[in-house]
Amino acid sequence: MNPVRLPQNPRVLVVILRRLGDVLLTTPVIRSLKRTFPQASIDAVVFAGTEGVLTGNPDLAEVITIPQRPTALDTISLFVRLFRRYDLALSVQTGDRPTALAVIAGRQSAGPVERAGLASRIKRVFLTRHYVRDARQHRVREILRLVEVLGIKPHDELVCPPAASHGRPVVSQPYAVVHAAPMFIYKRWSGDGWRALAAALRDRGFDVVVTGAVSDRAYLDEVWRDANVTRLDGDLAWPDLTALVAAARVYIGPDTAITHLAAASGAPTVAIYGPTDPRLWGPWPVGGLDRPWQAAGTIQRRGNVWLVQNPLPCMPCQLEGCERRLDSHSQCLDELSAAQVLAAVDQALGLRQAA
Question: Which end of the chain, N or C, is surrounded by fewer C-beta atoms within 10 Å?
Fold first, then answer.
């Protein structure tokens, strides 16, 4: 593929209309663009509420937000604001709206398309460059194909919000960070499991610091009832979270954006996975994946990440729990023992102690 040609000080737009974790997993694309075009001014368009994970990103000039459910006026206003403002605009998704934004915003545009269908054929016409999406690859590898179609060198490191240099949380070392609240119920482990894990960490001499969003407070009140933990849920900005997890002896959490952040920060990370397929969405360790995650296993390790599953025959199903809705339970997580998670934690603690 011939390298894309841009003016001396190009303006570039990256459209990422997905959730928090997806936005973080797109930062290798932004890093690849900045390394290739160091004089470029790169902007990103994201959903409101996800922009925090890009706080302080050194590769970005501006982050533009759009409501997750924009009105017609919101959409038209954004189209007018972005129209032909950029030398290059990229969509990291095959959806109609992100592709339209890239086509409208950029004098050149690029993005993925689906293998078949009328909408895909139309997008191929309007996009300057495109590739056919491969849903079987890990999201980071799949999204970096966008860089390859531009003919530039890919860089696969995730870029975390820079750790806060002052105003960071004051906690006692040694400590472990536990994040018990994923966005959706079907990704939750059991409250009994979390409490047993916290007690075992205390027995090993660690303070237990727990994180979460303000919206998780009611759930976390129940999970941590009578537990001897330091609660920072709802109190931390993203740079503070980076500082907190990067200095932890170990981080433990479910399939959520904070777990991806912990893995990317270099912290020894224990990720608890249920229905989600780790081959596609497993945490991305520092230095990248030396080999793909397996579909299912009791404990897998890649770099600074240990991935824990209860490998029932049905998993990973990639469904929204056993009842196939966001508020469903997941049997694979309900039946996951604290002993198995703790075995992975002890392995991860060995990494930090060895370092």
Answer: C
What span, in angstroms and rounded, lies between the C-alpha atoms of 214 and 209?
A: 16
Residue bearing tokens 């912290």: 267
Instruction: Tell how far CA 9 is from the center of its chain.
Output: 30
| CATH fold label, 11-149 | Rossmann fold (3.40.50)
* Domain range summary for the chain, segments of one domain joined by +: 11-149, 175-354
Does the 175-354 domain belong in CATH 3.40.50.2000?
yes
Q: Which of 37-41, 152-156, 349-353 has the lowest mean pLDDT?
A: 349-353
User: Do residues 247 and 230 lie in contact, with contact meaning Cβ atoms separated by under 8 Å?
Assistant: no
Cα-based angle 8, 11, 15 (whole degrees, multiple of 5): 145
* pLDDT mean over 268-285: 97
Q: Does residue 352 contact residue 252 with C-beta atoms inside 8 Å?
A: no
The values of phi and psi at residue 318, to 5°, are: 60, 20
Q: Judging by DSSP bridges, how do beta strands 305-308 and 299-302 pair with one another? A: antiparallel
Residue keyed to tokens 């075992």: 200
Q: Which amino acid is at 27?
A: T
**pLDDT higher than threshold 80 for residue 155:** yes
Structure tokens at 316: 């990973």
pTM: 0.94
Distance CA 270, CA 304 (A): 9
Q: Are 20 and 53 in contact (CB under 8 A)?
A: yes
